[in-house]
Amino acid sequence: MRLITLFFLVIGSCVCLTLAQGIYEDCCLRYVRHLSKGIQRHAVKYRFQVPDGDCNLSAVIFKMRRGREFCTDPRETWVLDLMKKVDNKKLHREDKKRRHADRLSG
């Protein structure tokens, strides 16, 4: 009986530890101070992190072409400029796709 109780206690502890590790998996814990122009060119999208129960830091998270992510301070001017560049790139790509589809259909 003690062995079964000990077994379930150990399994329960492992499950709790696994769940606790997953909570902070996508949270930024610190900012990148600056990204070089060469790295900034590879930014394809961004998302916002707001402080809530899981994450304590307000951040803009940039995703690069190969999936790498950088956490940045949303109050920095270079971050705001990079967000505009990413938005402009996205609009340009969508416009290009639309024009290409128009040529194919008409």
Explain what this protein looks like in three dimensions.
The chain has 106 residues and is an alpha+beta fold. 52% of the residues lie in helices and 16% in strands. The protein contains three helices and three strands. It has helices spanning 2-23, 37-40, 77-105, and strands at residues 43-49, 59-64, 69-72.
Task: Name the features.
106 residues, alpha+beta, three-stranded antiparallel sheet, 3 helices
Strand % is: 15-25%
Task: Indicate the radius of gyration in whole angstroms.
Answer: 22 Å
How would you sum up the major sheet?
A: 3 strands, antiparallel
Query: What are the secondary-structure elements, in order, as H or E?
Result: HHEEEH
Walk me through the topology.
Elements: H1 2-23, H2 37-40, E1 43-49, E2 59-64, E3 69-72, H3 77-105
Antiparallel strand pairs: 1-2, 2-3
